[in-house]
Amino acid sequence: MAWTVSAQTRTQYGVLPAINLNKKINARYKLNFKLEGRQRLFQQGESAADYQLTDLALVLARRMGLDHSLAGGYLIRFREGERIHRLIQQWAFEGGFTNLGLVHRFVLDQTFAPSEAAQFRLRYRAAIQFPLSGQSLNERELYLKMSNEYLGELQAAEYDLEIRLVLALGYRITDNNKLELGLDNRYDAFLRDEGRLRAWSTLTWYRAF
Questions:
Q1: Topology of domain 10-208, per CATH?
Q2: Nearest to 47 by CA among 17, 15, 12
């Protein structure tokens, strides 16, 4: 895989496996649990691989109407012996091209780490999902998911921007089980540094109860 970037951009590559579980409580409420790990395999100028972190997140969502919902949650991150805490507030809605499953998501989060200043972020993501055969997604069928996300970050009176582009190929095993394999590209630190490009191979299992 080749990347076309400036000579000053730092590059990283690794894997991002995850388990995503959803439990419908009733017609309005849904609980989401996510377990995700991050393993770096390569960094420009370095050859040593290292396991970076583990995330555990729990989010409760309330459907407010036919096409939008509000959610709040908590994430704990285990990184190099530290426990990092994050609060999450989210508004999501479906709009336009509904046959493609277009979803917009706005997120505010606040991250608190023992060794760093508090970090505050505002995130916007647009994602679409569509079957590769037919008009609707059925069991044992493939689908494509694409998303583009922008993250504004404020930490210690310094501002930065991160841009993410994700492309994944999914397979709907059953009505309640999906498996996705993709590539998550993240470009950040270009407002206050020389820039950093991180590419993660993703493997995510989705299970609904």
A1: Porin (2.40.160)
A2: 12
